[in-house]
Amino acid sequence: MRRSRPYCVGVTGSEPPASGGLEARGDRLAPGQLRASHQDRDRVVELLRVAAGDGRLTAEELDDRLEAALTARTYAELAALTTDLPAASSPLPALDTPPPKEMIRIDCGSGRATREGRWVVPRRMEVKIHSGEVRLDLTGAVISEPVLRIDADVHSGRLKLITKPGIAVDTDEVGVHSGQVKVRAPWGPDVPVTLRIEVAGKVHSGHIVATPPRRSFWGWLTRQPPPWATARPAIGR
Q: Counting C-beta atoms within 10 Å of the first and last residue's C-beta, which end of the chain has fewer, N or C?
C-alpha cells in the first residue's frame, strides 16, 4: 500500500467542549480539530498493527484503518480509529489541550529560557534578551493558529527558533546593529505553510537564528538523513 502523507503541523487550561472536542468554540479550534503530525499518524499505525497481531482486528479492518490513519488530518480523525482498542495503549496526546494564550512574555538576562516538547504556541510573544539565549523549539509544539508574531529585543544574546517543514519565518521587520539575522529553510518553497512566524524588533550585537534540528553526531557519522528530511510532507502525490 502506498503511503500518502498530506502535511498537517505556563498556559492556562480550559474544560473540553461537551461534544468531545469536535466542534469549534467561537473563533478557536477545539482540541480534536488540531492538525495531526506525521509522528502522531505513525504512533496510531503502530498501535493498529499491534492490535491486529493480538487478534483484535482482521486483515481487512487493518488495511482500512491504516489507509485512514495515513490520510488523517486531525486528532479527532485519528482518535476515531482507536476508540474500540484498549485505552491504556493509546498513543494519541490528550485532546484537552488548552487554547493558546494571547501573549507570552520572556525576559532573559545572562541565562537561558527554553520552550520545547508539546508546548502551546501563543498568538504573540515579546522576547527581551540581554547576554542570554531564548530557544523556541517548534518541532513538537501544538500549533493552532496560522500566525505567530514575535517582538524581539536582543542585546548581546541569541533568539533561536527550531523549525520544521511547514514553518515559514519572516524577519523583514528586524533592525540589525552589529549583529546577525539568519533564516534557514532547506526544504524549499514548495512545502505548504502551516505556521508563519513574523519577527519584528531589533538586534544589537546579538543573533536571531531560525533553523531545522541538527543531526546527532551518530546520525552524521552513519549518513542518516537530517531530521527535517524525514518529516517533509509528500507533495503532488
A: N
